[in-house]
Amino acid sequence: ADDHDGLAALLLAALGFLLFAVTNRSGGSGFLAVYIAGLLVRHRAGRVAALGLPGLNGYTWLAQAVLFLLLGLLVTPHEVWRLIGPALLVAAGLMFIARPAAVLLCLAPLGFDWRSQCFVAWSGLRGAVPIVLAIYPVLAGLPDGWRCFDVAFVVVLLSLLIQGPTLAPLARWLGLNQP
User: How many other C-beta atoms can be found within 10 angstroms of the C-beta atom of residue 81?
Assistant: First the structure.
């Protein structure tokens, strides 16, 4: 191993930020540019990409934690309590009806067995992406944009608290807990 292997993640992240900034500044999509660059690096420079993965994984966890913290600061607790009834209904609908139906429609034709479909259906909405997407109505200035954000926050929080801890036992019960 090279003495400078640890710098691969830092270099890749810095180049990604630079590419994002330059592309956005020139009127393009920074997200698309970084995504395509990532595909090219993986295809053309597999060793560099492999060396950078452990560090980039750490950056991802750090960014997600900071994002959750910042987005959590946008939540107004008394507004969330006012919307708790509709938020619980949305969460239940997503957990028990919408997501299982979507998983069935998408995975059954591909030959996934019922155990795998059940596990994917129970995986739920976790991560910062649903919360970030829920902030778009707020940014667009829609009249009830904050309601969408607060409901999405409750749905993600419930998914984390209910579905997250039950994933490992479900995988064991379904016989999917292989290395």
Answer: 12
**How do residues 123-137 score in pLDDT, each as one tens digit?**
876 666 787 788 888
Q: How deeply is 140 buried, as exposed, middle or buried, from its count of CB atoms within 10 A (0-12, 13-18, 19+)?
A: exposed
DSSP class of residue 35 equals: H
Would you say 11 and 52 are in contact if contact means Cβ atoms under 8 Å apart? Answer: yes
pTM: predicted TM-score of the whole model, two decimal places: 0.64
Cα–Cα distance between 38 and 121 in angstroms, integer? 29
Closest CA to 154 of 64, 103, 79: 79
Q: Which two tokens stand for residue 139?
A: 């940014």
Q: Do 71 and 153 touch, CB atoms closer than 8 A?
A: yes
Query: Are 151 and 87 a contacting pair, CB within 8 Å?
Result: yes
The amino acid at residue 13 is A
Contact 91, 158 (CB under 8 A): yes
Q: Could you tell me how many helices (H) and strands (E) the chain has, helices first? A: 11, 0
